[in-house]
């Protein structure tokens, strides 16, 4: 039985993690549960599993939860409490499914406590990849990717020697606006942007998929997770989201991983690792039913966010922190109807252009820069 600390339990990945835990009562147990503020979503889960530790975003939510919950639990709030529940001695696995850079410090703590980490929170690797990977190496901890592309690559590389890897091929569905030209993006609505053709995901990542920033963040994530240069990472459009990614070896053999687009599959892979266990939440992949798989070359002109992510990844230093923070803030402003879809990329580009790169930022600098960038972006918008 593996004890699980789940960060971001009320979110899209969090809820799907709960599905997997429910399916395997003899293998996984919910031990600690963290979420932001969605008490309604959390309560039935808490009542069912009665995890001993619960962490929420702030004091107000904590007080409100305490009034509603009907069993004894340790209930706390804030980042320090997150850091605590990832490192409790009885915890075997930490699922990091919070949204955004709030996941950074708990990731570092989980590494230092040498926990198995099922890792969805890509923003953490984008904002502070060098620090996270340095700690992971020091403590001998492997981050097990939940992101479907990286889970695919992880499986393709199993038993291989990294020196034989020629390149990684990340597949991209293209997001909600894949069939539109740039001109046709003027005036698109939030509702349109939130309609992803293949995946059901949280709001932020669905917008990131439409801007292609999600793939940009994944390029940086792949760079850190698999230790490959940016020149060795290619992105290809693939409408069906059946091939989740591929790797090519020096001898031109290409390995791909295929599966139904269901995030519970990579979530379960990371929880069960290094074993595999039955998955009955969706049917087997039916290729005859799908009929054909399509591929198309990626365009950096059509998707400037992907270009910016490659550029900042290559330049490194503090630039990816700025890219991530500006994107998180811009997407949140878009979701709150303050800016248009095309403003997102403009705001990010402006932040990157005005930034004086810091070569190897430490944790404190990253946390400061993250806050400053968000504030500047929201200030720029809200004052106009
Ligand atoms: P959601 O927005 O659906 O969920 C985010 C979760 O984080 C919620 O449970 C939210 O709580 C919680 N949260 C936010 N702020 C805090 C905080 N300060 N303290 C504690 N919890 C907090 O996001 P997703 O599930 O879509 O994505 C989560 C991560 O997984 C992201 O990094 C995303 O890029 C990655 N990912 C997601 C995929 C998907 O299919 N959804 C696919 C691949 C990667 P609440 O809502 O209660 O406030
Ligand atoms: Mg992905």
Automatic annotation (TrEMBL):
InterPro entries per UniProt: DXP_reductoisomerase, DXP_reductoisomerase_C, DXP_reductoisomerase_N, DXPR_C, DXPR_C_sf, NAD(P)-bd_dom_sf
Q: Which cofactor does it need?
A: Mg(2+); Mn(2+)
The biological pathway it contributes to is:
Isoprenoid biosynthesis; isopentenyl diphosphate biosynthesis via DXP pathway; isopentenyl diphosphate from 1-deoxy-D-xylulose 5-phosphate: step 1/6
Q: What EC designation does it have?
A: 1.1.1.267
Question: Which residues does the record give as Mn(2+) binding sites?
Answer: 147, 149, 218
Q: Which GO biological process entries does UniProt record here?
A: isopentenyl diphosphate biosynthetic process, methylerythritol 4-phosphate pathway involved in terpenoid biosynthetic process
Q: 1-deoxy-D-xylulose 5-phosphate reductoisomerase N-terminal domain spans which residues?
A: 4-129
Function, please? Catalyzes the NADPH-dependent rearrangement and reduction of 1-deoxy-D-xylulose-5-phosphate (DXP) to 2-C-methyl-D-erythritol 4-phosphate (MEP).
Residues that hold NADPH according to the record: 10-13, 36, 38, 121, 123, 202
Where would I find the 1-deoxy-D-xylulose 5-phosphate reductoisomerase C-terminal domain in this sequence?
Answer: 143-226
In Swiss-Prot or TrEMBL terms, this protein is called: 1-deoxy-D-xylulose 5-phosphate reductoisomerase
Q: Which organism is it from?
A: Aquisalibacillus elongatus
Q: Which gene encodes it?
A: dxr
